[in-house]
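Run log, item B.
One chain of 195 residues. Sequence copied directly from the ordering sheet:
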Amino acid sequence: MNRLRRLLRSERGYSLVELLTVMAILSVVVGGLTTLFVQGSNGELDLNRRFQAQETARVAMDKLRREVHCASAATSASSTTVALTLAASCPSSGGSAITANWCALQVPSAATGDYGLYRQTGASCTTAGVLYADNLISTNVFTYSPPDSIYLGTLKVDLQVNPKPSMTSETFELKDCLVLRNTTRTGAATTVPTC
């Protein structure tokens, strides 16, 4: 019984070596957990950026599809721009005949290689227009085939989206071949549309 009393009265604590050992083990465990949490957070952020870039490209493609189907004519000087002639009856024309220009241009505030899909009414298309999709990795978006005696006018659209252009394996490609339903078949048959 005396021995038990002596042990209970004893004021011995942990030694400095024991404390340092426990702190070293805890720092390794906490460091590993912190690394896992940071990697998980970065992965979620990257996934959200990719999803948002893909979703804005889908919305832009849907808007462009509706305007192309309603357009009565189109002109394309290059693979970066297309001008659509919309009649007053088209929902996006605002009640009067307009020319809607779509173009792929470099986003002004972004790094080199980050392009956006813009829409602007009037004679030309600039970055002052409405930005519908960003994170494009190429400006070669449009390929227009004019109408002939067999085919209506067609517009091939190719949106390549990637918020991290350095990681080419994560590129999302959204392609569609849109027919200008209100164009008229004219002239002799030339070539089969690119779609």
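Observations after the first pass:
- Helices lie at 2-9, 16-70.
- The first strand starts at residue 73 and ends at 78.
Flagged for discussion on Thursday.
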